[in-house]
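Bumping my old thread because nobody answered last time. Still need a sequence for this structure:
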């Protein structure tokens, strides 16, 4: 299989992934573990990486792609410089998190799982992040914003522009 070598998809990264896979004592049932590692190494899971994983684990590429697209944690596109994660768990949802994520979508003209054209921002929807007392919760690059209101969205974005 032909590998794609760009600044981001380097042979070193494929080598690191191969070393991880080769060290596994089992291959059956290792797909999710391998995809987690691959996303950690590459930052996302482009088709070239998915094909490589399929080949290494000796399974159909469609199966790998099915898992990648099923779990929202996995991304087929590069994340932005700043990742905005909006909790849509029950406590956050009942306190208006849906309106907050919609406001981020409107401001940035992207949907959850997408990245702005300039590569600056991505939006993710998360399940409960364990800070329900602060609902609704937004995290940007791991920094937690609690009791967020729709009117706060502009101010949050300005911190990263
Ligand atoms: S539901 Fe959002 S932090 Fe728990």
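Sorry it took so long. Here it is:
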């Amino acid at each position: 299989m032909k590998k794609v070598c760009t600044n981001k998809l380097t042979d070193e990264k494929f080598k690191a992934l191969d070393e991880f896979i080769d060290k596994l004592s089992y291959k059956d049932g290792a797909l999710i573990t391998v995809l987690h590692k691959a996303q950690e190494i590459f930052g996302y899971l482009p088709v070239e990486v998915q094909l490589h994983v399929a080949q290494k684990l000796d399974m159909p590429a469609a199966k790998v792609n099915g898992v990648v697209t099923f779990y929202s944690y996995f991304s087929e596109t590069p994340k932005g410089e700043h990742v905005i994660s909006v909790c849509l768990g029950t406590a956050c949802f009942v306190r208006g998190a849906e309106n907050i994520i919609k406001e981020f979508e409107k401001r940035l003209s992207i949907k959850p799982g997408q990245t702005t054209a300039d590569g600056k921002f991505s939006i993710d929807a998360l399940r409960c992040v364990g800070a329900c007392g602060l609902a609704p919760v937004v995290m940007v690059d791991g920094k937690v914003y609690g009791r967020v209101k729709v009117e706060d969205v502009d101010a949050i974005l300005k911190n990263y522009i």
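The longest helix spans residues 11-23. Let me know if any region looks off to you.
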